[in-house]
# Entry
Amino acid sequence: MHITEAAKKLNTTPRAIRFYEDKGLISPKKNEKNDYRYFTGKDLMRLSTILALREVGTAVANIQKQLADPKMEMRDYLNVQRAALFEKWLEIKDMIDTIDDMLDQTQEGEIDTAKIYDLAQHLKKLKTVRKNWQDKWNFDSQAADYDQNIKMHGFRFNVHQDYDIALSEVAEKMQLKEGDTCLDIGIGTGNLGSKFLRQGTHVIGVDQSEKMLEVCKEKHPKIEVRKGHFLALPLLDRYVDGIVSSYALHHIRDEEKILALKEMDRVLKPGGKICIADLMFIDKEQRQSVLAAFQQAGNTQAIEAIYDEYYAYRTELTGWFAANNYKVEAIQINPILSVIYAERVER
# Structure
């Protein structure tokens, strides 16, 4: 169809479409005889995604990054739109929650401006954290060979030692059943989430890496994949019966981990379960002890690897769960790998 028809279908203007074309966001075919633009169904889907991202305030430069892959298909465009809309919805939800807190701070018509300022700063920080998370390890580039590169042995410091044991522990603890919905955060290629397919559980895999999601979908077609991350889960409140995650939480900073736990709590149904297998230390003292042992052994590879990631303190994670109405259990697999199982207790 021509540009006027495309504009009408998408409720925009030919001028806006030409602007996105000038910016290199779209490249419709042109008739060599009259130079008219011709828009295919794929062009319309791409334009629809651009318009949706602009509607929620995404900058043109960021849209270019998100739509840089020339092989994107309709499902990819829809995934990008959904992730962006969920992030905007969470931002609005944070604003409403902050306003509710501000109202709670007012008594008899008097407003404590200092407390309101603190709440406003808290909202600003939440917005910044959700939007600015970045994958500094470039998991897109690792997706194709990820499974082959998971080595259990042969390194002076092997982060994947006891990998299969940890995943099996998570699957055994969760005890999900047919008809349940399970969320796997940082699903990667689906090694953990796929363990729940055999009992008829509906598995939703969330990952910030589109390439990882592609590999996961190819390996496990029954898994529903969604683009997103720990700090902005693309699901509505109280949506899933169980949440699992493996070897992913250590990719977000310590100050972001509590927000990640709150996001899990938000999407979990009453009585739901959470199980996390991840690289972590019991507490600060154990971290120092492990680092000192590596230092004494001259294992600089191990020390550098630990400092490159954000290993949690297990006591802080279990403490949060205990303080928020969860019955929590911790299982230590090896000195740097633990499984945390938490079940929500309803009052």
